[in-house]
Amino acid sequence: MSEPIIIEDYSPAWSNTFEALKAIYQSHLHQLIVGVEHVGSTSVVGLAAKPVIDIDIIITNLENLNTIIKKLKPLGYTHRGNLGISDREAFKCDTAYTPIDGSEKIWPKHHLYVCPSDSVSLRNHLTLRNFLRNNPQKAKEYGELKKQLAQENPYSIDKYIEQKTPFIIDILKNGGFTETEILNITQENIQK
């Protein structure tokens, strides 16, 4: 049986964890990357979320991906491919000590992705994050929806993602995405 889906009230520790992780990535990848963004629900103050920090490392294009993979490996990250999401490369934490930075710190759970700066995946993450940051009432509604879905589907992350997708798509439709991009995002979210 898979782990239960847990939705927690917002914690300021999420932002602090992101900033500490960002500093490590910038230190090791500084000349290869454009930026590091905190995305996902933990990046929105006041939003209930699964306690998992989602991070997008932004690159100009995929030309330097192999170099980035090699630089992330000693930190304890294994490249997993795109996991069915176009223009987004996922990395798995090898241990609870990942990133291995010499501190022997056990890090909170986090998901690390590398995205080209012009990717739909990155635009999706940033558009949703920025909308929710600027619309606290919608963020509250989204948090309540996620809590409800986690109760209804406590052991099915696939159903949870599928059932929250219409809320996300409504936001993205007003965020400048084409119909084709919306269709692709919907299919990628539902295929999990």
From TrEMBL:
InterPro entries: GrpB/CoaE, NT_sf. This is GrpB family protein. It comes from the Bacteria. Gene3D superfamilies: Beta Polymerase, domain 2. It comes from Pedobacter miscanthi.
